Amino acid sequence: MQSMRRGLIATVAMGAILTGHGAAQAPASPRDTTKATIGAAKILVDYGRPSKRGRVIFADAGLVPFGQVWRAGANAATTFVTNRPLMFGATMVPAGTYTLYAVPNATGWKLVINKQTGQWGTEYHQDQDLGRVDMKVEKLAAPVEKFAIKVEPKGPNGQLRFEWDTTAASVDFMAH
Known about the structure:
Blueprint: H1 2-19, E1 31-38, E2 41-48, E3 58-59, E4 64-65, E5 78-82, E6 86-88, E7 91-93, E8 96-103, E9 109-114, E10 129-154, E11 157-175
Parallel strand pairs: 3-4
Antiparallel strand pairs: 1-2, 2-5, 5-8, 6-7, 6-11, 8-9, 9-10, 10-11
């Protein structure tokens, strides 16, 4: 009886493996983090990484429509944490936790730094904006399949950069 039960369990388990039932599947937009130290500032970005999967991404009728607030990733809101004040353009970002959004357009982007945290990515409240900052947009030579956020040193300061499909949008910042 015991060996018959083990055989049945093994058969069910093998069937689950072969059909994909019961097996954990990787999420379509896995979470990722970016960490960097710029000057004395320690920065962390936590975000969802959607894939292009053959879709039109940035366009009037794209997955991310022009002129609308976008969650800068997928699923839960993109979290931005800094332990020191940062200056993005004319916007001072005190040490703390924020949510990042973006407003893409064909001619330029805006980075939106929002004070509300912990929400789903599509829950956006403009009255919680700390500030909006112009981003530089450039066309990439090769498409990027999976959305990426990078925080990189740029001289003594830093750069926040979004890359996806054939688009890169970036903004420089100063660490205090």
